[in-house]
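Hey, resending since the last one bounced:
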Amino acid sequence: MLRFPFAISFLLPAVLLCQIGSAQTVRFHTNLGDIDVAMLPDRPLSVANFLNYMKRGAYDNSVFHRSVKGFIIQGGGFTFKGGNLPNIPQDAAVRNEPGVSNIRGTIAMAKLGSDANSATNQWFFNLADNSSNLNNQNGGFTVFGRITNTAGLAIMDKIAAVPVPSPAILASPFDAMPLINYRGGSITEANLVLVLSMFILGDPPTITSGGVVTASSFGGANVGTAGSFLEIYGTNLAGDISRTWADADFKSGVAPTTLDEVTATVNGIPAFVYYVSKNQVNIQVPTGVPTSGFVPVVVSYRGQASGSSTFQLKSTAAGLLAPPTFKVGDIQYAVAIHATGGKYVSNGNIPNVDAAPAVPGETLTFYGTGFGPVTPSTTVVAGKVVTGLAPITNTLEFKIGGISSTVLYAGLVPGLVGVYQFNVTVPTAVDSGDQPIEVTLNSDVIAQKLFVALK
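The structure tokens again:
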């Protein structure tokens, strides 16, 4: 069943974008970009009708099946499935609600040419000022939303610029369907202009003041470096699902820069997204960032960006793995693992960790982040699974109980992303009990006050 307005076009009043207010906003996520549309509360029947289709996913993977140059682009009637273009099932028609002008950047309900109250699932964007025709034709076409910004208008125009084959290669209602890079033959999904998904935009993400720190399990510092994992705290940072990255999120060993529609940047460079939740997002600082100074950190969810939060970067920002669960009273223990047997080092007072103190002369394994560049230089410290041994190039000293220790290996861990491993021999002259760990990278002693249990 064909539903369309008849063609006529004029120009846009620029004041349109200033008239949006605080209406509910729907994002049209298309394969050519996003269009944000503010629903008009004073057109309740049409808005409710449209949202009913949207909320049940009826418009997901739907096509723009009609494009008339300088007039309208139309969709909402058909999806693309298995090489076919089936109809989107229609609900009962909605009563006409004319009165808002069909000017550039508005969205209106399509309907049958002989029935003013016949609008169901199809809609169209006005590419120009069509008010002199569409405000009156067939009882007037109901405008129920407006594009909110110039970026959305640009995507609308981008869709309108997609060629329509002439002469038509398909019968009505697809005889004016825009096709991307079509060179003849069968039409594929790559040729179609698609609404991939639609959803209501919530409030934009907000980063809490001072809400960016390095990973709390590695010291929770306010200074980071390339490869550091950062914890970002705030509101509306992600959707309802909380999760970390998984194997399926990696492409050829490269970590994701998008996780469940969450992205982040550090100094404008896409960061690697490790964990997402409504109030916390964890990222890894990418390479290519400055090695000194303060830089902006921004989180985006579903294309809505937070304001920037400044964070300090240095050439190194070393921290050892020492999670809050390894803190007993005032003593923060580092995670140390017996090289033989693989047990955690503990004197028995760490909850849920068996007693297994270290002994002089044995080798322990520690983990860290932020220890800087490695060799070979082709091994990156951020965003990629390490495939071989990669020792650090900075000078490192480990002391246990105030005594310098032999470091057998200090470098990135094969099979992980941006995590360093330190194989350290406990000095033979060290005393028993809780002994302090002191780590010096180049000439800087790391700020953490850490301990390891010895027998």
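The longest strand covers residues 403-412.

Sorry for the duplicate.
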